[in-house]
Design a protein that fits this description.
Helix content: 40-55%
Radius of gyration: 23 Å
Structural class: alpha+beta
Strand content: 5-15%
Bound molecules: zinc ion
Order of helices and strands: HHHHHEEHHEEEHHEEE
Shape: elongated
Distance between the termini: 35 Å
Number of helices: 9
Length: 265
C-alpha cells in the first residue's frame, strides 16, 4: 500500500466526489497558500501543492466541508454549474404515502390477502403478487410523467391533485402534501393496484406502499437490478435531510434510482 493509497478516501473521490466540496476546498487552499506566500513564498507554494494533492486524494481537506460547502456554493448561486441544483430530482428525498393504519393490522391483512407470505427466514412477497406487482410496474414505466400523475390520482383512495414536479410527482390531498420520485411513484401505484385487487381496504393498501418498496428486486424506473447499497455522495442524494451523509438504501445499479431508504435506528 503506497502512502497515496493510505491517504486516499474513495468515499469522497472518484464517482463519489462532491464537486462543490472540491471546488470550495481548492479555492480555500489557494487563498491560504497565497496569504502565506506573501509572508514566505516557499511555504505558500508547499501549502498549495500539498493542499491540492490532498483535495485530489481525499475529496476535501477542511474538516466539516460536506456540511457547509454545498450550502455555500448554493448561497452564492453557483450550484447550477455543478449539477446540484435544489430542484434536481436526485437531490430530493421521496416522501411516502402515509395512512393512519396499525402496522400489525396492515401486516396481517397483507398475509391474509396472499400478498405476503411468512417463511421461517422472514417475510416475502408471494410469487403471484410479485408477478402482478412487477408487471404493473413494467406498464407504468412506459408512462409519461403526465400519465403517471393521472395513474397516481386514480390509484390513491382520496381526492388528490397530482402534478409532475421536480422530475417526480407532487401530490396534494386533503390530509397530505407529498412529493414522490418517479421510481417510487411507479412502485406505489403498482402496490395500490396489486393490493386493492385482493379486496384489501384501500387505506391499508396505502399504508403498505412504503413497506412494499422493501421487496423491490426490479427497478421501477428502468427494469434494472435493485440491490442494497449506500448513498455516499455528500451533497447529492439526501444530504441535508439526514444527519449522516451515508445510509443504507435499495438502489438501482443501472440508473441509480433510490427505491427504498432504510430508516436509521
Ligand atoms: Zn433503474
Amino acid at each position: 500500500m503506497s502512502v497515496f493509497d493510505a491517504l486516499r478516501r474513495p468515499e469522497h473521490t472518484g464517482e463519489n466526489r462532491c464537486l462543490p466540496c472540491t471546488a470550495v476546498n481548492a479555492v480555500l487552499v489557494v487563498l491560504v497558500g497565497l496569504a502565506l506566500g506573501v509572508l514566505w513564498p516557499p511555504i505558500g507554494a508547499v501549502v498549495i501543492a500539498v493542499g491540492t494533492l490532498l483535495v485530489y486524494l481525499r475529496g476535501y481537506v477542511v474538516p466539516g466541508t460536506p456540511s457547509f460547502a454545498p450550502k455555500l456554493v448554493s448561497a452564492v448561486g453557483l450550484d447550477g454549474i455543478f449539477g446540484h441544483r435544489e430542484d434536481d430530482a436526485a437531490a430530493r428525498q421521496s416522501d411516502s404515502l402515509d395512512a393512519n393504519v396499525d402496522p400489525d393490522v396492515m401486516l396481517s391483512t397483507l398475509l391474509n390477502a396472499g400478498v405476503l407470505v411468512e417463511e421461517p427466514d422472514g417475510l416475502f412477497l408471494t410469487d403471484e403478487a410479485r408477478e402482478e406487482w412487477e408487471s404493473a410496474m413494467a406498464t407504468l414505466r412506459t408512462a409519461s410523467d403526465e400519465e403517471l400523475a393521472d395513474a397516481v390520482a386514480s390509484a390513491v383512495p382520496f381526492e388528490a391533485t397530482v402534478t409532475p414536479d421536480f422530475g417526480g410527482l407532487a401530490i396534494e390531498g386533503p390530509a397530505m402534501s407529498v412529493w414522490l420520485s418517479r421510481p417510487q411513484a411507479i412502485a406505489d401505484v403498482a402496490t395500490l393496484d396489486t393490493v386493492v385487487e385482493r379486496d384489501v381496504d384501500p387505506m391499508v393498501a396505502l399504508a403498505a406502499t412504503e413497506p412494499m418498496r422493501m421487496f423491490t428486486e426490479v427497478c421501477p424506473e428502468c427494469g434494472g437490478v435493485v440491490e442494497e447499497t449506500t448513498t455516499r455522495n455528500c451533497c447529492g442524494g439526501t444530504a441535508g435531510l439526514h444527519d449522516s451523509p451515508e445510509h443504507e438504501i435499495l438502489g438501482c445499479v443501472d440508473c441509480g434510482a433510490v427505491v427504498y431508504e432504510f430508516r436509521e435506528e
